[in-house]
Amino acid sequence: MDLSDNLADIVGQVGRSVVAVHGRHRMPSSGVLWRRGVVVTAAHTIRREDGIEVTLTDGRRVAAVLAGLDWGTDLGVLKLDGVDLDPVGSGDARSLKPGHLALAVARADDSGISADFGVIGGTSGPWRTWKGGQLDAFVRLDGGLRPGFSGAALADMRGQVMGICTSALMRGAGIVIPGMTVERVADELLAKGHVSRGYLGVGTQQVSLLDAWVNKMNLSSNSGLLISSLAPGGPAEQAGVLIGDVLIELNGNPCGDMDALHAALGSTSVGQPLQIGLIRGGERHACSVTVGERPRRNSCR
User: Fold this and answer.
1) b/e string for 1-21 if b means 16 or more Cβ within 10 A?
2) Scanning 20, 101, 189, 258, which has the fewest C-beta atoms within 10 Å of its C-beta?
3) 50: buried, middle or exposed (CB in 10 Å: 19+, 13-18, 0-12)?
4) Domain residues of the chain, as ranges?
């Protein structure tokens, strides 16, 4: 009974800061009062910009203003006016280990608080999502999330909220957006409505390099990124990059996969020169590109 009572206490404590978010048709998603007057949720559950409402812990249904969405981390931020409820107490998701017990706490509009009890399935260091966002830690739950649990709070056995849950960043598994990531992304969304990411205006495909090229140019990697498309007027096209070039270096560092390219195009790279190394016609070629800001929802890197 001690464990059962402890779990119920944690759900009750965390649930005081968990809300239902009405940002799509039919089933609401969950959200967390992360700061006073600020709710965070999973971006993929927000399907409209206006008319969003939130059901609070006391049953009131109030209007919410969309501060911004970041598809790279699947984080959405809503602002509430005149709501003075206590936010959650957050912890450090980097302390979680595989096998640790965890509680996902969600809220549905009609049935109140819901909880899902499980274990942490896997963890690692910083992780770049397939959408190009950077999570400060990788935390995988031991299975998929139930409907309505995207945006739910993920709490440890001390009742500290380690982040929020999402089903959109890994097929068949729930992922936790760590509290550190929530803080960082929320700051940027509240300040300017979107998250800045670097942009070259290229479409790429990973390719294996010929052994002759690797030996001739003394390359440390046997893979590169073939430039398969260029955004008209984009930074790369303006710098003279051509379709068919093979990208091999960024600021002197090997660039053999998409992770390396994404890592060079963080928010601090916007407006900065980026020295890129290419193979063109079997010869090494270099040029400097001024990194632009990625247009929202643009599929080019």
Assistant:
1) eeeeeebeebbeebbbbbbbb
2) 101
3) exposed
4) 2-192, 198-293
CA dist 141 and 154 (Å) reads: 10
Distance CA 269, CA 267 (A): 5
For tokens 């998603």, the residue is: 29
Beta strands 134-135 and 161-166 are unpaired
Distance CA 130, CA 191 (A): 25
Q: Quick one: which H or E segment has residue 16?
A: none
Region 2-192: CATH code: 2.40.10.120
Q: Which two tokens stand for residue 257?
A: 């996969």
Q: Point out the residues of the chain with pLDDT beneath 70.
A: 1, 110, 296-301
d(CA 295, CA 301): 10
Is-contact 113 7, C-beta < 8 A? no
**Smallest Cα–Cα separation from 162: which of 147, 146, 174, 148?**
174
Retrieve residue 209's tokens: 């390099």
Overall fold of domain 198-293 = Pdz3 Domain (2.30.42)
